[in-house]
Specification:
The chain is mainly alpha-helical and 364 residues long. The chain is built from 16 helices and two strands. It is a multi-pass membrane protein.
């Protein structure tokens, strides 16, 4: 059936799948930093994905409305920030079209808006990560997992039923910073941008994992008491990891918001947390390439089941969505039974070669 798809459909399928792999790759890599390297029970990961999207739809978009308010008022005879209820319920799409037209004529404005959104997303995620570090230092692992899960739900519910945050149940329409590229080229440009951020994330986390900092994280994960005895400041390491991983998840949330062009805070349910956990378990914890392989395997399964969903319905008489849950559940059980380390298990940290160490010793 895949071979029967038209070339254009295959092209779209490949492009959209790669965008999701890039965005979720960043998201799962940030989870791997917390779970795989430090051993934190991060069951509220979706909170930071939501905060990244909120930074785009609830903060950066309002900044754009403030900057271009004069043009919007002249064309629509409304002031969006003065009457958010009316704007959210009736004028979002017209207003965002005006901003997109400005970005089309002035590309630097669009690029600036994109970079501002990512910075805000990283800052918002990082700040909340530091706030969550407080409980992480005082609670046992099981209670910490419950607290993070509840905190994520609290953020989602408050943001959903507070229209001033991100237009509440209406959802917030997001300006397109790449409107100047053109409709045909825009998806490919966005794919290139997301892949660029994914490569940067992999590079940074690989360097981090193979540094003394990364080896200290493994030591804290495997034997916290021993790490304390050898002088490692566990509190500082946890704060750094939570802030860094949360900032990365915020960037993933911002990229996700730009992909959808609209965000509804009610969509960020715990499902997104446990989807990331599924990818990480399949791929392997404590290994960045393992985390990425889990993302790839998950989306291959997802796309194949989506293509064959009607055939599946006829054979097993089960809703394809629930059938996908069954298949993924079986895969997780098999992985945990026969390959608990995942497809790509954790490997020893890379250190300098012996001859390099001897040379450095001689220079010292």
């Amino acid at each position: 059936m895949i071979l029967q798809l038209e070339l254009g459909s295959l092209e779209v399928l490949f492009r959209e799948t790669m965008i999701f792999i890039a965005i979720y790759g960043i998201y799962v890599l940030s989870l791997n930093l917390e779970v795989g390297y430090l051993g934190l029970p991060q069951f509220g990961k979706v909170m930071f994905l939501a905060l990244g999207a909120l930074a785009v739809g609830g903060i950066a978009t309002k900044i754009a409305l403030l900057i271009y308010g004069g043009t919007i008022s002249a064309q629509l005879n409304i002031s969006p920030l003065s009457d958010l209820d009316t704007y959210c319920s009736a004028y979002q799409y017209q207003t965002i079209d005006i901003i997109n037209n400005i970005f089309t004529s002035m590309p630097l404005h669009g690029v600036g808006f994109f970079l501002l959104s990512l910075i805000l997303a990283a800052l918002l995620g990082g700040v909340f990560g530091i706030l969550m570090a407080g409980p992480a230092l005082r609670l046992r692992e099981d209670y910490l997992g419950i607290l993070l899960l509840v905190s994520a739900e609290m953020i989602r519910i408050i943001a959903t039923y507070t229209p001033q945050v991100a237009c509440g149940v209406f959802g917030a329409v997001v300006p397109d910073p790449f409107a100047w590229v053109g409709t045909d080229r825009r998806p490919w440009v966005y794919l290139a941008v997301t892949l660029l951020f994914l490569l940067a994330t992999v590079f940074i986390l690989e360097r981090l994992a193979n540094s003394p900092f990364g080896r200290a994280l493994r030591a804290i994960r495997d034997a916290e008491t021993a790490a304390r005895v050898f002088g490692k400041d566990v509190v500082r390491y946890r704060i750094r990891v939570l802030s860094t991983a949360s900032a990365l998840a915020g960037i993933a949330g911002a990229l996700f918001a730009f992909y959808n062009n609209v965000i509804n805070m009610n969509m960020f349910v715990p499902y997104y947390t446990f989807t990331a956990w599924t990818m990480l378990i399949i791929g392997g914890m404590g290994n960045n390439y393992g985390a990425l392989s889990g993302v790839v395997v998950y989306y291959i399964i997802d796309r194949v089941l989506s293509i064959y969903k009607e055939g599946i319905r006829q054979i097993v008489n089960v809703d394809p969505v629930f059938f996908q849950y069954i298949i993924l559940g079986v895969i997780i059980i098999l992985v945990l039974m026969f390959r608990p380390q995942g497809l790509v298990g954790e490997k020893p940290a890379k250190t300098l070669k012996r001859r390099v160490l001897e040379k450095l010793r001689g220079e010292a």
